[in-house]
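Quarterly update from the structural biology core.
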Amino acid sequence: MVGWAIALHGGGGDIPIDLPDELRIPRETALRHCLDLGVSALKSGKHPLDVTELVVRELENHPYFNAGKGSVLTAQGTVEMEASIMDGKTKRCGAVSGLTTVVNPVSLARLVMEKTPHIYLAFDAAEAFARAHGVETAESTYFITPENIARLKQAKEFNRVQLDYTAPTPKEPEIRGDSQIGTVGCVAVDSAGNLAAATSTGGYVNKMAGRIGDSPLIGAGTYANHLCAVSATGKGEYIIRATMAREVAALMEYKGLSLSEAAAYAVEQSGPRGTCGLVAVSANGEVAMPYNTNGMFRACATEDGFTEVAIWPKN
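Predicted structure, tokenized:
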């Protein structure tokens, strides 16, 4: 049976089981809202490409996730956002990096796909392309929030590139009260088997300016073909080495694994525990959301009525 399905994530990482309600509840509420938005769009007949863009835009607009408005800061105190989107049937895709003013990077990635002969634009050229196409932009104050200034200060104090999207805990820096390796993403399939994937992020706290992660890299952080759609989250350098999103599709195509088997194997082989996670859907409406981190902000729904919004492993 072919049925629609959708899965989304708000990042995975070292998320303590006792995450305070004031940090947990807004994220769960946002995940549920974004899931409902995506489900309504699929039910109304929107193409998965439109659905994934819509959902990721909403996640980018939410300050509790490390993408768009919630993007963390580089070592220079700036925002450098990146995103990608891919259509499974045609394999058309678009990607952007080094954005500093674009409110919704995922939509600019789609414009690169649809309005240029290229796949990937970055930094000043991507910003110029955004201005030329009237894409919504904002001043740096929109992105540079007090919370992310505090996160950067903490990371600098302890001289580390913070791999997580972490709330300041200056007295006990290794206890990560709000930890997530920040990325947002969405994958969707409609009842005709059309697939799409989209991913967006602000990167690492205190990263080197100019560093590019897995999120805009097709085959690493994002991939979709006729079999599946995948969006990854985690430590980008590991995900890039493993070409993790493409690995799921390859395992299904060449080894005949199911979506759940392929997704679990790809995560397992990507690196040590605490490295990554992903959300994926197959052409026949299956969903997989494996991760090897402590938790992953995630949600999914399928046409047969299954719905889940979760952070930690289910008992």
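The CA atoms of residues 101 and 120 lie 17 Å apart.
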